[in-house]
Amino acid sequence: MEQELAGKVAIVxxxxxxxxxxxxxxxxxxxxxxxxxxxxxxxxxxxxxDDEKAAGWRDxxxxxxxxxxxxxRCLALVSDIADPRAVDALVERTVxxxxxxxxxxxxASAARGEDRVAAIEVKYDVWKKVMVTNVDGTFxxxxxAARGMIAQGHGGSIVNISSIASKIxxxxxxAYAASKAAVNALSRSMALDLAPNGIRxxxxxxxxxxxxxxxxxxxxxxxxxxxxxxxxxGYAGDGTECAELVLFLVSDRGKWITGQAMNIDGGSIWG
Length: 271
Hints:
This protein is of the alpha/beta class. Helix content is 43%, strand content 14%. It has one domain (9-257): 3-Layer(aba) Sandwich (Rossmann fold). Strand 4 (103-106), helix 5 and strand 5 form a beta-alpha-beta unit. Helix 1 packs across helix 9 (240-250), helix 4 runs parallel beside helix 5 (124-152) and helix 5 (124-152) runs parallel beside helix 7 (174-194).
């Protein structure tokens, strides 16, 4: 298999879940030859979904082990993307371990929760938590990684995992939709700022992806009905589709693409 990212180093945040977008992204970039740093919050095992508990899952350590068993290089670090000092330490540790940073995937995101109510019912502390995680975390990680890329002088690529919620802005999702719309705008603005340095910044906007984040919607007949009614192609993604798009964007194949917010949703929305 072609090692199109050989010699590159990538950071993927929020990559510890078994059913997720971050895990397949980290594994796909490693498969393409990149050395990988994955981060997570260090969530306690009692917070794992039942399928992770049954599998003996160990969060980012399990993902790192998968990458190493496949012949890749991976460093797993517990970090807080909303803490400027922790973010700087994450990038510094990456450079100390692998000598450089070329790619950043901002995948860490606030889980569905108390924010999924009518806007006037969202408690301010809940609103702030969503914004700090999704917007502040993306901003801090992007700035820290970009400073490292600029110092190296070889360009780089940042991909922010947004959502089609940023464009639909549906009811009962004000905090999440607003945060992801902010991620799209941040991606565009930073793309223009960093273009002279050869650093590209894009966002991808996944639709329905069958991850732990949507477990509250249920499975079985109700899930299948939702999928069939919302996705023209007739099936939900599993994260591997996002991983392939990310690989395209961070590789030389995507070298003339920057400042975009690209849908990957089975045809669910347009625009």
